[in-house]
């Protein structure tokens, strides 16, 4: 039926809960920055983070802009005159994510399905609205990296779903025919709308962290109870 399977990550393959508003997060991050020569109070750090994040989005200047937050983490050091290299930036981002993450797990049936696609010789790709320093380590943590023929993360591209540019870059990079490809995701406004713009079929899976509003985009297939194990019967033959 399809030769290429393109997946969203969060809410589709992996269940995750994060809380970036938790005062504990900003207290601990302020301690880390201060210890590395960039003294911040928790509130000052949080407001500075949001300010630099907005600035990065404005710098890219597109509707579906996706800044790389590594520049934000590094900028917070530089604003206090502290030295900052790539290793420190990455470790700060990883620590931020670990402190803000309540849990992450792969949905039941995900690894088995990806393994079956691999065994059948189908191509598997990830197209995720996400941050490199958050998401690539989490893919590794869940043991899923080995199943992907390619991984595209929005912060690496400067744009995000539903931008047709984001989809086209993936298709062009790997020489994929959109008519032989399907997008699987839990967000109609990004995954399903973007697939339509790219000329691809799509499967919408409704999970606990899907946006509340749905039903506005017509997916080729739907799984409305969040049971990932039902996906196989719809799109593999």
Please describe what this structure looks like:
It is built from 10 helices and 8 strands. It has helices at 23-35, 42-60, 70-79, 86-100, 110-119, 132-141, 154-157, 164-174, 188-197, 231-235; strands at residues 4-7, 14-18, 101-106, 123-128, 150-153, 181-185, 201-205, 221-223. Helix 2 (42-60) packs across helix 3 (70-79). The chain is elongated, with a radius of gyration of 19 Å.
In short:
The protein has helices at residues 23-35, 42-60, 70-79, 86-100, 110-119, 132-141, 154-157, 164-174, 188-197, 231-235, and strands at 4-7, 14-18, 101-106, 123-128, 150-153, 181-185, 201-205, 221-223. It is of the alpha/beta class and 237 residues long.
pLDDT < 50 runs, ≥5 residues: none
**Radius of gyration over all CA atoms, rounded:** 19 Å
Counting copies of identical and different chains, the oligomeric state is single chain
Pattern of helices and strands:
EEHHHHEHEHEHHEHEEH
Strand order of the largest sheet: 5-4-1-6-7-8
Termini separation: 6 Å
**Can you tell me the overall shape?**
elongated
- Biggest sheet descriptor: 6 strands, parallel
Tell me how many strands there are: 8
């Amino acid at each position: 039926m399809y030769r290429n399977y393109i997946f969203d990550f969060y809410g589709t393959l992996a269940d995750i809960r994060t809380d970036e508003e938790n005062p504990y997060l900003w207290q601990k991050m302020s301690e880390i920055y201060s210890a590395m020569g960039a003294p911040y109070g928790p509130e000052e750090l949080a407001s500075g983070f949001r300010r630099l994040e907005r600035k990065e989005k404005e710098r890219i200047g597109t509707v579906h802009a996706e800044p790389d937050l590594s520049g934000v983490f590094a900028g917070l050091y530089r604003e206090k005159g502290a030295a900052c290299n790539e290793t420190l930036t990455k470790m700060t981002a990883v620590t931020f994510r670990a402190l803000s993450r309540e849990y992450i797990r792969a949905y039941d049936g995900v690894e088995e399905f990806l393994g079956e696609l691999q065994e059948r010789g189908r191509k598997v790709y990830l197209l995720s609205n996400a941050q490199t320093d958050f998401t690539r380590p989490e893919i590794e943590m869940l043991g899923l990296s080995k199943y992907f023929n390619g991984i595209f993360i929005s912060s690496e591209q400067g744009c995000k779903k539903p931008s047709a540019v984001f989809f086209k870059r993936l298709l062009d990079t790997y020489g994929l025919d959109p008519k032989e490809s399907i997008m699987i995701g839990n967000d109609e406004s990004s995954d399903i709308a973007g697939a339509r713009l790219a000329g691809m079929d799509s499967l919408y899976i409704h999970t606990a962290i899907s946006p509340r509003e749905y039903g506005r985009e017509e997916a080729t297939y739907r799984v409305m109870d969040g049971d990932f194990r039902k996906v196989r019967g719809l799109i593999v033959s």
